[in-house]
UniProtKB/TrEMBL annotation:
Gene3D superfamilies: 1.10.1650.20, 3.20.70.20
Key words, A-Z: Allosteric enzyme, ATP-binding, Coiled coil, Deoxyribonucleotide synthesis, Disulfide bond, Nucleotide-binding, Oxidoreductase
EC number per UniProt: 1.17.4.1
PROSITE patterns for this protein: RIBORED_LARGE
Organism: Lentilactobacillus parafarraginis F0439
Origin organism lineage: Bacteria, Bacillati, Bacillota, Bacilli, Lactobacillales
Gene Ontology BP annotations: deoxyribonucleotide biosynthetic process
Annotated signal sequence range: none
PANTHER family assigned: RIBONUCLEOSIDE-DIPHOSPHATE REDUCTASE 2 SUBUNIT ALPHA, RIBONUCLEOSIDE-DIPHOSPHATE REDUCTASE LARGE CHAIN
Protein name stated in the entry: Ribonucleoside-diphosphate reductase
Length: 721
């Protein structure tokens, strides 16, 4: 038998029986039977085995499956010690989906894809050895974190670590264009290059002049942003890693850009084929002023980026529109267009109902909370990366006259259930930060010099979390309840504290900080004020019990950390971000990200296979009442959970809102006496609520329609898997 010739296997049928109730009970044992059958019928007969570890590594290196350099940094005696430790941990997948996803998508296979060369423990060992870079103590600690599934590197890192033929370790990229043809051309080239090497690409187009703006003083000459969007969509379709994956990108535009209506219109189903965007994602950056104008039911003005840049001397994105709005309205030198703010709000909601787009970036909220000198102007393909950028200038030969600063994303996640079992937040998080730091230090995206510069100067990482709903259900907490919100705040406070401790320790060891640390709120100590003035320790008995045995930093601890950071600095400009997750969470046998589940028994359509069913982690008669579907939940509860985490996260979080076309009775009080159908008003209210709660970004709006279809499902493979 080989992986190309699997006949008479039973595991798919056994897995499918989960969806057939027996005596009104979910036959969860069928999932365990499917798991056992998969390992017996698929994995064991198709796993290449070796007489010794030395033979295995010699084979993998000689046949160009593994790089030799990272193995040579260790004695074989240590590698054998690490493997002995891993084997003694008695790791077992807990579900069929976890094992299936790992072996289908992550395990190294022979070049003909006919046999497995790795088990899960082999992939963990490769990651631990690779990211520890010769440090035996760190390698053992990383192996411990990963085998107990407290830490999960993002897909690009976990998949590629140690492999000779590999993609990049980073997840996605953020670039921006300024308002001239040379930079637009360079941006399109950058999109091609970045899509080629893997990962999603976010592109800010807010600085481009609007349709009808002058070119060399010729009125009405500019074509606006939509033709550039079409060029970018075609670029991603062409640059698709030799057909292995669809190139993925998102374009961002300011809600005050004159092309905002045509920008949104390009995604509509009934848009003219000349402008319609089929695969490119859309995001809108929204300043506070837009929400103010909505409340007032006022007119709003859209401003010519060309004129704004001439008046302010910086590209449009770098102007604080909320602060300058009235001056810009009064300035006759700035061309402007008047529309009703609520009309634009409704257009946004209509498109979100139809397609799930656009993502919303509350740009003033992000910048108010930003401790770094500079301005955040956009986000990434999954809306969780929020870092400062600076614009570039390109000459006629496509050389940089002024090299700006752009962003690459380097992600990993804690598994909340297992982190809480481990109790040693400090040791665990330091190991994770060091693994992510290795990726940052060894990334060299030279095809886009602005990203290369940003990475070298910032050393940014994005540590996040998954499995929040699993944890709530396991401990009998309803998602969105007061104790669940309190737990979330404490957990992310700990993530923040210990990642700061680790970053400070690395800065002290290396005598190096991120560029412009001295201009940050960390350097002057003001960042720490809220932790010195507010007690984030557990308050209720329930949450105190959950954190029993976990070290909770005291005010004195925060004061000591403040002093250490002011003295020795931080190595990482940014540390925390929460990605949406997906297949990675299945392998961890936990729920994705911070979201509530969609179904207690999730149904996934796998290409060439059919349907696979995945029971929610820890599903039992005891936990069923705590597993409410996201589609049956008041989205304000989800927003409140994310807001509790956002208080401590320096970047953003991929917050998705889940709606039904027909909204369950009693879910939202404003529906009483009105239609039970989802309307634009529902989305308007929820977006404004999220803004008031301090949410920095809203990812997809996912709608479950009356004909059992989903609109706005995740498409960002880089972060999702």
């Amino acid at each position: 038998m080989s992986l190309h010739n699997l006949k008479d296997v039973s595991y798919f049928d056994l897995n499918n029986q989960i969806n057939i109730p027996v005596n009104n009970q979910i036959p969860l044992q069928k999932d365990q039977e499917a798991l056992a059958a998969f390992l017996k019928e698929n994995v064991t007969p198709n796993l290449v085995t070796f007489a010794s570890l030395a033979d295995r590594f010699d084979y993998l290196i000689n046949h160009h499956y593994y790089e030799a350099d990272f193995i040579k940094k260790y004695d074989m005696a240590f590698i054998e010690e690490l493997y002995a430790y891993l084997n003694n941990q008695d790791f077992h997948f807990k579900s069929f989906m976890a094992a299936y996803k790992f072996y289908a998508q992550y395990a190294l296979k022979t070049n003909d894809n006919d046999a497995y060369l790795e088990t899960f423990l082999d992939r963990i060992a490769a990651n631990a050895l690779f990211f520890a870079d010769g440090d035996e103590k760190l390698a053992m600690r990383l192996a411990d974190e990963m085998v107990h599934q407290r830490y999960q590197p993002a897909t690009p890192s976990f998949l590629n670590a140690g492999r000779e033929n590999r993609g990049e370790f980073v997840s996605c990229f953020l670039i921006q264009s300024t308002d001239d043809m040379n930079t637009i051309g360079r941006t399109i080239n950058s999109a091609l290059q970045l899509s080629r090497i893997g990962g999603g690409v976010g592109i800010n187009l807010s600085n481009l002049r609007a349709a009808g703006d002058p070119i060399k003083h010729i009125e009405g000459a500019a074509s606006g942003v939509v033709p550039v969007m079409k060029l970018l969509e075609d670029s991603f379709s062409y640059s698709n890693q030799l057909g292995q994956r669809q190139g993925a990108g998102v374009v961002y535009l300011s809600v005050f850009h004159p092309d905002i209506i045509s920008f949104l219109g390009a995604k509509k189903e009934n848009a003219d084929e000349k402008i319609r965007l089929k695969t490119l994602s859309l995001g809108v950056t929204v300043p506070d002023k837009f929400y103010d104008l909505i409340k007032q039911n006022a007119d709003m003005y859209l401003f010519s980026p060309y004129d704004v840049e001439r008046e302010y001397g910086v590209p449009f994105s770098y102007v604080d529109i909320s602060a300058e709005y009235d001056k810009m309205v009064a300035n006759d030198k700035i061309k402007k267009t008047k529309i009703k703010a609520r009309d634009l709000e409704t257009e946004i909601s209509k498109l979100q109902q139809e397609s799930g787009y656009p993502y919303i970036i509350n740009i003033d909220t992000a910048n108010r909370a930003n401790p770094i000198a500079g301005r955040i102007v956009m986000s990434n393909l999954c809306s969780e990366i929020l870092q400062v950028q600076t614009p570039s200038t390109v000459d006629n030969e496509q050389h940089y006259i002024k090299l700006g600063k752009d962003i690459s994303c380097n992600l990993g996640s804690t598994n909340i259930v297992n982190m809480m079992n481990g109790k040693d937040f400090g040791g665990s998080i330091e190991a994770m930060v060091r693994a992510l730091t290795f990726v940052t230090d060894h990334s060299n995206i030279d095809v886009v010099p602005s990203i290369q510069k940003g990475n070298r100067e910032s050393h940014s990482i994005g540590l996040g979390a998954m499995g929040l709903h699993s944890y709530f259900a396991k401990h009998h907490m309803h998602y969105g309840s007061p104790e669940s919100i309190e737990f979330t705040s404490v957990y992310f406070m700990l993530l923040n504290y210990w990642s700061l401790v680790a970053s400070n320790k690395i800065a002290k060891e290396r005598n190096e900080t991120f560029i412009n640390f001295d201009k940050s709120a960390y350097a002057d100590g003001s960042y720490f004020d809220k932790y010195l003035n507010t007690d984030y320790a557990p308050k209720t008995d329930k949450v105190k019990d959950l954190f029993d045995g976990v070290q909770i930093p005291t005010k004195a601890d925060w004061e000591a950390l403040k002093a250490a950071v002011m003295k020795d600095g931080l190595y990482h400009q940014n540390r925390l971000a929460v990605a949406p997750n997906g297949s990675i969470s299945y392998i961890n046998d936990t729920t994705a990200s911070l979201h509530p589940i969609i179904n207690r028994i999730e149904e996934r359509q796998e290409s060439k296979i059919g349907k696979i069913y995945y029971p929610a982690p820890y599903l039992s008669n005891d936990t069923i009442p705590y597993y409410t579907s996201a589609y049956d939940m008041d989205m304000r509860k989800v927003i409140d959970i994310y807001a509790a985490a956002q208080e401590h996260v320096d970047q953003g979080m991929a917050l998705t809102l889940f709606m039904r076309s027909t909204i369950p009775a009693g879910l939202y009080e404003w529906k009483d006496g009105r239609t039970d159908k989802m309307t634009t008003r529902d989305l308007n209210i929820l977006r404004n609520y999220a803004h008031r709660q301090g949410i920095k970004s809203i990812y997809y709006i996912r709608t479950f329609t009356d004909d059992n279809q989903e609109v706005g499902s995740n498409e960002c493979e880089s972060c999702v898997i």
